[in-house]
Design brief:
- The complex is a heterodimer.
- By secondary structure, chain A is mostly beta strands.
- Chain A contains no helices and eleven strands.
- In chain A, strands 2, 4, 5, 6, 9, 10 and 11 form a seven-stranded mixed beta sheet that branches. In chain A, strands 1-3-8-7 form a four-stranded antiparallel beta sheet, with no helix packed on it.
- The radius of gyration of chain A is 13 Å and the shape is globular.
- By secondary structure, chain B is mainly beta.
- Chain B has no helices and twelve strands.
- In chain B, strands 2, 5, 6, 10, 11 and 12 form a six-stranded mixed beta sheet that branches. In chain B, strands 3-9-8-7 form a four-stranded antiparallel beta sheet, with no helix packed on it.
- In chain B, strand 7 and strand 8 form a beta hairpin.
- The radius of gyration of chain B is 13 Å and the shape is globular.
- Classes of the chains: A mainly beta, B mainly beta.
- The interface between A and B is medium-sized, with 24 and 24 residues.
Chain lengths: 113, 109
């Protein structure tokens, strides 16, 4: 079974802190994604990566950056956390083309105070 | 631009009755369409997908979906609902996986 793990289930940070969210997948997938999930808004794509060191902006990249130094690991970075970044963050991975389904991690609920 | 809409925030159905969760899409070119389910405090799980071929797609847990090109719809269906089907359902489209806003399915005993 594909496994996607996220470094924390719950995280509480203060405004202005730099926050790192880590995601690891164990199935050699080319694509990795970061979403945020908010009630009534569904999942919104922040960034995705289709290869090591490659990335593309999603719908809401402002205030976020990403890093993919190894194929299995995709990190989301909040450069200076703000209260409007309080949300559920979901990581996913998939094989190459857009015809393949995504596999999701359990999510990280981030609260910024 | 690609987009997907789920017009119902919530669907209520009695156990044993058929259920439908609606999804409409807007894409250029051939649509790649997916359904996912999210149980409480869990990540999303893949249910089924339409890429090409037969318009009726069968997936996990007895779910199926019908692709209708003329109506640009991809509704999720199940002939007989279970209480355990209660969850949040998401439709997704395209190569970048644009997601709908989600539909909460409540199945009552």
């Amino acid at each position: 079974d594909v496994k996607v793990t996220q470094s924390s289930r719950y995280l509480v940070k203060r405004t202005g802190e730099k926050v790192f969210l880590e995601c690891v997948q164990d199935m050699d997938h080319e694509n990795m994604f970061w979403y945020r999930q908010d009630p009534g808004l569904g999942l919104r794509l922040i960034y995705f990566s289709y290869d090591v060191k490659m990335k593309e902006k999603g719908d809401i990249p402002e205030g976020y950056s990403v890093s993919r130094e190894k194929k299995e690991r995709f990190s989301l970075i909040l450069e200076s956390a703000s209260t409007n970044q309080t949300s559920m963050y979901l990581c996913a991975s998939s094989l190459g083309a857009g015809t393949n389904e995504q596999y999701f991690g359990p999510g990280t609920r981030l609260t910024v105070t | 631009a690609q987009s997907v809409a789920q017009p119902e925030d919530q669907v209520n159905v009695a156990e044993g009755n058929p259920l439908t969760v609606k999804c409409t899409y807007s894409v250029s070119g051939n649509p790649y369409l997916f359904w996912y389910v999210q149980y409480p405090n869990r990540g999303l799980q893949f249910l089924l997908k339409y890429i090409t071929g037969d318009n009726l797609v069968k997936g996990s847990y007895g779910f199926e979906a019908e692709f209708n090109k003329s109506q640009t719809s991809f509704h999720l269906k199940k002939p007989s609902a279970l209480v355990s089907d209660s969850a949040l359902y998401f439709c997704a489209v395209g190569r970048k996986f644009y997601f709908g806003s989600g539909t909460k399915l409540n199945v009552k005993p």
